[in-house]
Amino acid sequence: MRQANRLVGKTLGELARHIKPGVSTLELDKIADEFIRDHGAVPTFKGFPNPYGGPFPASICTSVNDVVVHGVPSKDDVLKEGDIISIDCGTLLNGFNGDSCYTFCVGEVSEEVARLLRVTKESLYKGIEQAVNGHHVGDIGFAVQDYCESAGYGVVRELTGHGIGREMHEDPQVPNYGRRGNGVVLKSSMCIAIEPMITMGKRDIYLKKDRWSVCTRDGKPAAHFEHTVAVRKGKAEILSTFEEIENIKTS
Q: Residue 248: is its pLDDT beyond 90?
């Protein structure tokens, strides 16, 4: 699990080098696919089944601006200055899955958008703090919800984090809302993906005609950050990493 998730972090770091105005999301997908396969893994998302239609056609999800999750890469979806793009990436390596997401700025963004990203990322770590032995799934959801709603943002209800291991999506579901002390009890060595999906406006969403892209109904931006973690006693172990991304951003 550590190896698979470290590779996801490296893939996101590689993509960080190429995110700029004028680049299409399909170009980013090709870079990710090649990078993952060159490192001996398989992009988990490619061919992932859809209950509403055909399998996912790409290796990463590229969700731009008002697309919350599951954006489909396209040659016509070209990034421009001031955009944000959430890139969700999954790998299957030696029989185990990695999963992580990061919302990137394309050039300079407004302070309003930068604050959304900052709060969403901070809420991820608030949730991770609760992923310890003996706590409940509801403790994670409450931490994320309380932090983001206190900042004036919407918390998407229809999409959740999840258990992860030999399968990409396993039990339990890990919502970004909830009540303390409610839900599945967390036990050491459980692996879960915690992924706040937060909107600048209302939390209402809809599914686009491609039957994959989930968008905010009011058209306002959304942010999405995700780590895969192992539940431990006292403090969760973060298996994925943003270090590769942060190194690119500061270099």
A: no
